[in-house]
Amino acid sequence: MEEMKKTSNPACFALLLTAVIACVCGEFVQPPPSLALLSFAEEETRLPCEFKPQDGVRVVQVTWSTEKSNGVKEQIITRHMTEGLQEFPTFAGRVRFTSSDPIKDSTLLILSTRESDQATYTCHISTFPSGNFERQISLTVWRIPISTLETVILEEGQSFRVAATCRAIGLPPPRLSWDTDVPGQSQNRSSEDGVVTSQYSLHPLRSMNGRKLDCLVWHPALERPRRLSSTLVVHFPPDATVSGYDQSWSVDRKGAELKCEGVGNPQPHNFTWTRKGGVLPKDVSVEGNRLIFTRPLNKTDEGVYECEAINSVGSVKTEVNVKIPEATKSSQLEASFNNLLLIIVGGAAGALVVVMTIIILLVTCHHRRRTRKLKRELSEKKEEINNLSRQTSMRRLNSVSTDPRIQTEESTLIRMDSPVKNSVFSLEENSTICEQRDGFGEDDYDSLGRPAIFRSYHSERGSGRRKETEVEKQDRVQRVATFIKNSNMTLDADLRLEQSLPPLSISSGASREGGTEKDVWGQREGMPEGEEGECTSDSYQISEALSNHFHYSNGFLRPKPHPNAIILHPRGQLI
Predict the structure, then answer these.
(1) Which of 25, 144, 327, 496 has its CA 20 to 30 A from that of 508?
(2) Cα 506 to chain center, whole Å?
(3) Judging by beta carbons within 10 Å of its beta carbon (0-12, 13-18, 19+), is residue 407 exposed, middle or buried?
(4) d(C-alpha 108, C-alpha 87), whole Å
(5) pLDDT in tens for each of the 575 residues of the chain?
(6) Torsions phi, psi of 513, nearest 5?
(7) Rounded to an integer, what distance in angstroms lies between the CA atom of residue 547 and that of residue 507?
(8) CB of 497 within 8 A of CB of 399?
(9) At what angle do helices 540-549 and 529-538 cross, to 10 degrees?
(10) Other residues' Cβ atoms within 10 Å of the Cβ of residue 521
């Protein structure tokens, strides 16, 4: 009974009836149940809503409403089938339907989303005769954080204070952090308007100047933290030092100057030069941070010089004690010696270069002269060898050596043993008859009394030469004997040569034009056999040797070719 009473409750019955009708009379195409959307401030936001009624069911009105987190509800916009469109003041001009027929497609568009638009939105569909249908959409609005970083110019010596401030605003509120290697402390706080602030404090030192101090902004709308970069700025007074004085200044030195170098933040912009116990010397000029002596130094320029460097933070002074001793003779001598040494070293180097150049030239010329001399001597040696060869050949023909080691074929032909000597005299006697027939005379011997080897047979028989007298005959025989005696042709080797040579029989068929001779050494035509035999037997040895080294051609007895032979003309000239 209790269950029936509960079921008979009018509210429960109405809900059950609505569910049954919805299941039967239509359905939402979109959005799905319990839809949650995320949007960003100052951007468009689309709220989908589309209902599809069944046949016989008609949509009469579409209404959008919102409910804040505190339970406050507001109407946004309404579209009636006959009464038209109606916008409520809170959202007037900020919303519109995306479709020209909101009855069919009731999707709502928020043109510029605000942070206050974060709420639960309801799409309400009124139908006839089926009743009302609705869907709810939960909208979350985020704001991409806007962040700034402000740094403070610090000064060395100040107390612990804020060096930089980082601020950011967003929805949900962002988180801030610091990225730096400078020792300090950070402090974060948030305001009611959603602004988050973080401050970084430290004790300023000059070593912190220019160091990194970055702020990192963290937010769920950002894929990675946003970095705001900055560097610390710490001002400090300058540090000053004086350069240019090297403890070696002396009287009469030229071009001396002092330079004041200051390091600070900001850089020093003003420099002041003074001398303790007096004023600056005359004839000096101040150009920025330099004190220039425009003349040679003197003893009165000694003293303590003070430089003051000034910047926007403060100033600092520094000093240098300048001493100017008089130049001593030893220092002058040392300077002169150094200059002289430099001159000597330079001169020696130059002289060494010149000497090396001369040596190279001399060596080159020497080698060239030596080469020419060697070429000349070689030519002279060649000429001398050629002359000696010709002279040796001449001597071999004109005289015969008794040394068997240097005998040649030519000397062998001339040498004869004692039997040959004896036969020559008989040869000379018997040759008289032959010569009388053939016309031989005094012209057939040379200036030394030697019998001529080459004979000329030009028109001798018909020349009408007179007959040789007995005195001329004896004189000719005497010359032949003297020649044979002086020639020393007494070697036994010729005898062996004579024994080894075969008998020579020259029977050349050469004939002279207009004559009856058959051969110079053969049988003559018209000569008695007895006389021919005598001539032949007496000249056997000579003819046998000459036949091996000479040949008869065209009326002349010519030597056979030999590499060491020197030919003598019948008149005694070299050929």
Answers:
(1) 496
(2) 90
(3) middle
(4) 12
(5) 333 333 334 333 333 334 434 444 567 887 888 889 999 998 999 999 998 888 788 888 999 999 998 888 999 999 988 888 888 988 888 999 998 888 888 999 999 999 889 999 999 999 888 888 989 999 999 999 999 999 999 999 899 999 999 999 998 999 999 999 999 999 999 988 889 999 999 999 999 999 999 999 999 999 999 999 999 999 999 988 999 998 888 888 888 999 998 889 999 988 999 998 888 888 898 888 899 999 999 888 889 999 999 998 989 999 999 998 876 655 666 667 788 888 999 889 999 999 999 999 999 999 998 899 999 889 988 888 888 887 777 776 665 444 444 444 444 444 444 444 444 444 444 444 434 444 444 445 454 454 544 444 334 444 444 556 777 777 777 776 666 555 444 444 444 444 444 443 333 333 333 333 333 333 434 444 444 444 444 455 565 656 666 666 665 556 666 555 555 544 444 44
(6) -70, 120
(7) 12
(8) no
(9) 70
(10) 22
Question: What own/partner pairs with CB < 8 Å and gap ≥ 24 does 373-381 have?
Answer: none
φ, ψ of residue 422 to 5 degrees: the values are -65, -30
Contact status, residue 353 vs residue 304, Cβ threshold 8 Å? no
Residue 110 · residue 136 · CB < 8 Å: no
Which value, to the nearest 10 degrees, does the dihedral of the CA atoms of residues 340, 345, 348, 350 take?
-110
> For residue 181, how many other CB atoms are within 10 A of its CB?
8
- Answering whether pTM is above 0.90, one says no
Task: Please report where in the chains the tokens 């939105």 appear, as a residue.
Answer: 121
Nearest to 410 by CA among 318, 545, 223, 244: 545
Q: Count how many Cα atoms sit within 13 Å of the Cα of residue 399 in the half-sphere of its side chain.
A: 7
Pick from 420, 494, 480: which is nearest to 445 by CA? 480
Question: What is the total residue count of the chain?
Answer: 575
Question: Which bin fits 348, alpha (ψ -120 to 50), beta or left (φ > 0)?
Answer: alpha
Q: What is the DSSP letter of 443?
A: G
Contact 288, 273 (CB under 8 A): no
Report the alpha-carbon distance of residue 315 to residue 270 in Å, rounded: 9
User: Quick one: which of 571, 570, 456 has its CA closest to 520?
Assistant: 456
What's the burial of 109, exposed, middle or buried (CB within 10 Å: 0-12/13-18/19+)?
A: middle
Burial of 538 (0-12, 13-18, 19+ CB in 10 A): buried
Number of separate helices (H) and strands (E) present in the chain: 9, 27
* Residues 404, 411: Cα–Cα separation, whole Å: 10
Choose among 145, 128, 155: nearest CA to 53.
128
Residues in CB range of 200: below 8 A, 6 or more apart: 162, 163, 164, 165, 166, 178, 180, 184, 185, 186, 213
Instruction: Express the helix, strand and coil content of the chain in percent, nearest 5 each.
Output: 30, 30, 35
Which token pair is 239?
């540090």
Measured distance CA(28)–CA(51) in Å, rounded: 4
* Helix or strand (DSSP H, E) at 67: strand 58-67
φ and ψ at residue 432, rounded to 5 degrees = -65, -40
